[in-house]
User: Fold this.
Amino acid sequence: MNSCLSTVGKKLWVALTGIGLSGFLLTHMSGNLLILAGPEAYNKYSHALISNPLIYIAEAGLVVIFLVHVYLAIALNWASRAAKAGGTSVSPSGEKEARFGSKYMVLTGLVTFVFLVLHLITFKYGAHYSATYNGLEMRDLHRLVLEKFHEPLYVGWYVAALLILGVHLVHGISALFQTLGIGSVRNCRIKMVGYGFTALVIVGFIVQPLYVFLFMQGGN
Ligand code: HEM
Assistant:
């Protein structure tokens, strides 16, 4: 794929897959806010998701989108470094943006990748408790989430990783508008959209471990 796509083509796919991943984050954050509504609402919601056969298609799609995004973003970053070392630049969007991109986007993306791997190990493939509602047995994810969000170190790492994801999102969202030809990353309104969306998603995620840690009782 690397050799078939021009720089503009790669940027376009990074932007389009970025929109897909942002959509996932917004949906995941909103659904998980049910953690604050109690075990029954949260477990029934996650059971409805897990037991829907379409989940396998959605998960496969998410993995493909994620891999394309990471692969092309890293390819662009290496091309940009090579061009800079050779005295030319592949970024048409100005020195400042190029510098920010090459310095922080790969780093914040890598931290998010580590977060994601640990996150999946902890929750998706973690301890399997059960709960029964109206005779229907399902996974008690609420208990697992509460257990993890009562560990101070885990909550600290979670909040730090989410703030780092926020840095990635703020820049990524403004950059995707530029790639799609809607406006410059330095445009005030474009910046506002980047900051607004990021604040919504990151604050929505961060309140969950903090609220559980500070105000909710144990893991069951
Ligand atoms: C407060 C923050 C978060 C909470 C409470 C949370 C909770 C969960 C839980 C309980 C699961 C397991 C669901 C299942 O097994 O069906 C899960 C899966 C997942 N989470 Fe999160 N999550 C949070 C933040 C994030 C963030 C920031 C990302 C991305 C960077 C993320 C990406 C994922 C992915 C990709 C899955 C697997 C989805 C699937 O396979 O269907 N989560 N999350």
The chain is about 75% helix and 5% strand. The two ends are 48 Å apart (CA to CA). The chain has a mean pLDDT of 91. The longest helix spans residues 54-85.
